[in-house]
Amino acid sequence: xxxxxxxxxxxxxxxxxxxxxxxxxxxxxxxxxxxxxxxxxxxxxxxxxxxxxxxxxxxxxxxxxxxxxxxxxxxxxxxxxxxxxxxxxxxxxxxxxxxxxxxxxxxxxxxxxxxxxxxxxxxxxxxxxxxxxxxxxxxxxxxxxxxxxxxxxxxxxxxxxxxxxxxxxxxxxxxxxxxxxxxxxxxxxxxxxxxxxxxxxxxxxxxxxxxxxxxxxxxxxxxxxxxxxxxxxxxxxxxxxxxxxxxxxxxxxxxxxxxxxxxxxxxxxxxxxxxxxxxxxxxxxxxxxxxxxxxxxxxxxxxxxxxxxxxxxxxxxxxxxxxxxxxxx
Length: 329
What we know:
Blueprint: H1 4-10, E1 26-30, E2 33-37, E3 44-46, H2 51-57, E4 64-66, H3 78-87, E5 92-94, H4 101-106, E6 111-114, H5 121-128, E7 133-135, H6 147-159, H7 163-182, E8 191-197, E9 200-204, H8 209-216, E10 235-238, E11 250-254, H9 261-266, H10 269-272, H11 275-278, E12 282-285, H12 291-298, H13 301-308, H14 311-319
Parallel strand pairs: 3-6, 4-5, 6-7, 8-11, 11-12
Antiparallel strand pairs: 1-2, 8-9, 9-10
């Protein structure tokens, strides 16, 4: 087996010499430096948690990907399965919290994609000695880059241009505009995403991609929570005794498969006294499979397109203030 130390010390070129294509070489600035891709990659490895979706959307078959959570073949969730099949991708899958550089090396990549991953300078430098790295776009916190910027960076590194990504971004942003036109009642209404874990409520802050999704629909992030997110996790913690601070016009609750979150929250006396309960303003993303919750977390071109067909009517039902209106996937 190759070793990272040996390959990096010798400066070996791990992939076959690529063929030059129009648009290459290209250089991309990121949070750790500048990456130069000399020629169009042939063996792309995705080390982030969601980047396989971006690659499939661009028509690229990665040779290896990373699983975030869920038991899905090739770490591909239902919203992305058709796109995976369309490019004929059957990637190797890495499972684990801590990335293994030996595993990356063994995939023989000529491009490494890691825009949605916690990475430091030392790890970036080590990965860059294996192959060029598409990392977190410059100017954003970990987990905080807009999907549009991630997509354009990956497109530029893999095709030499942003033609495909520009078209995808335009299509999805047009869909957001149609939702805003179809649901004018969203304008100015406060909403956010909240999950309940280990006795505490966690909000996604305004820099989180899932929060940006709701804002793109025309909803407003609650101003009282602006600037309160943890720098590392982009989360805002609310204790149960302060549950009344979550009494917004609507709250979206991501629910993983098999979770009893809804039952636990609805049993809380404080919750039952909120408008969320009395007027049916909670949107419980409980489809029994955790798919809607996963799509909200992934925030990729494929998951966003899938979610745009499902979440807006649920939000509209929650915002009407009538508890008799069914709010369901």
